[in-house]
Amino acid sequence: MRPQYTLALPGQGVVRSTLLSPYKKYRSLYKPLLQEIDSALNEPISIHLEAENGASEWLQHTSNAQPAILATSYIIHHILKHEHGIDLAGNALYLMGHSLGEYTALVLSGVFDLASGVQIVRKRGQLMEDVVESASGAAGASGNETKPGYSMLALLFASSHKLLPVRARAIEQGLLANDNSSTQLVISGETGAVDKFIESANSASRIISRATRLPVSIPFHNRILAQIEPALANYINTFKHSEPAVPIVSNLTGKPVLDAASAIANVVLQTHSTVQWAQSVDFVHQQGVDQMVCLGPGKVLEGLLRRSSILGIAVDTPDTFGGLSEFFNQL
Fold first, then answer.
1. pLDDT score recorded for residue 137
2. What phi, psi does 234 have (nearest 5°)?
3. Torsions phi, psi for 187 (to 5 deg)
4. For residue 232, what are the CA distances in angstroms to 22, 213, 267?
5. Which residues pair with 181 in a beta bridge?
6. What is the mean pLDDT of residues 168-176?
7. Three-class SS of residue 249?
8. Quick check: 54 pLDDT over 80?
């Protein structure tokens, strides 16, 4: 019987200072992949991926963090497949990726190869950085001493009842970046607009239990980034692609896509669109999935499932491999 699980891949929100250093005992297995990645990017990013003492400064640049997270997730999958005989992507009913993670899903499903994947997300990150730099440069040229800074805030709610009106207002104001769960949203945009939104939402009563400013300077999944989508699409179209071997649940629609053309179109449009993560989780649950393997650095995706009907299984360090083997043995 085929395992009834979905494989989920993380986005940039999971960046940590160490990526591959916990896996050094498998280095002989994944060394050829590092060489392939370095060659594709014409840069030895493997030095940062394997850094023992962390690479947090390097990872602060989204053009570095994006290929680093995709590469790390891919390599963990490679280790499990070739060292432990567990093909997480091949046996999944669906693949899901949170924001950047959807590009990792495209690679694991066979739409793009690894070299193409890291080049595409490196370009995606560079285009995003260009938007922020251009906005700062324009403000300086106009004599405006206040740079048009951008912010993202994760909002936590005590219940879905409190979340719903805030979500509606965030959609209306074009600030909703991630619809993550029944108790968590992420908003993004110009810092002034984001701060004003929080102040207004909590003016009458404390509807938002906690608002955490994320350590990013790019307004992910905000309409500000729509301007980079044509260039991103043109760049992606220079790479060869194949049809996905496993359906990918789209961030854009919360529904599965079965063909490469739709999958690629959706990841381009999700650049400025809300990540429909809660809707995606609801969809796979409706299809009979009650377990989700969250593969990659960090445990953010597992955390988002805590109030859902799906059991999250985090696979982010070698320590978790044993539990994953037990999970597969029980299926």
1. 62
2. -60, -40
3. -115, 155
4. 33, 27, 10
5. 184
6. 97
7. strand
8. no
Residue whose tokens read 């300086």: 140
pLDDT band at residue 264, thresholds of 50, 70 and 90? very high
Q: What is the pLDDT of residue 112?
A: 98
Which tokens hold the place of 68? 């680093």
For the entire predicted model, the pTM comes to 0.94
Q: Domains (ranges, CATH) in the chain? A: 5-130+223-330 (3.40.366.10), 150-213 (3.30.70)
Q: What is the mean pLDDT of the chain?
A: 92
pLDDT number for residue 202:
86
Question: What is the enclosing helix (H) or strand (E) of 259?
Answer: none
Q: What is the b/e burial string over 78-94, where b = at least 16 CB atoms within 10 angstroms of the residue's CB? A: bbbeeeeebebbeebbb
pLDDT, tens digit, 9 for 90 and up, residues 64-101: 999 999 999 999 999 999 999 999 999 999 999 999 99
Q: Among 196, 199, 175, 173, which Cα is nearest to 185's? A: 175
Question: What residue ranges in the chain does DSSP mark as E strands?
Answer: 5-9, 94-97, 150-156, 176-181, 184-190, 210-213, 248-249, 256-257, 291-295, 311-315
The region of weakest confidence among 27-31, 76-80, 301-305 is 301-305
Question: 327: exposed, middle or buried (C-beta count within 10 Å: 0-12, 13-18, 19+)?
Answer: middle
Q: Tell me the CA distances in angstroms from 211 to 184, 185, 223, one per residue in order.
A: 10, 10, 22
The string of DSSP codes covering 55-92 is -HHHHTSHHHHHHHHHHHHHHHHHHHHHHS---HHHH-
Eight-class DSSP state of 17? S
The answer for 189, left when phi > 0, alpha when psi is -120 to 50, beta otherwise, is: left
What CA–CA distance (Å, rounded) separates 176 from 166? 10
pLDDT at 30 (0 to 100) = 97
**pLDDT of the residue at 326:** 76
- Token pair listed for 72: 């790390």
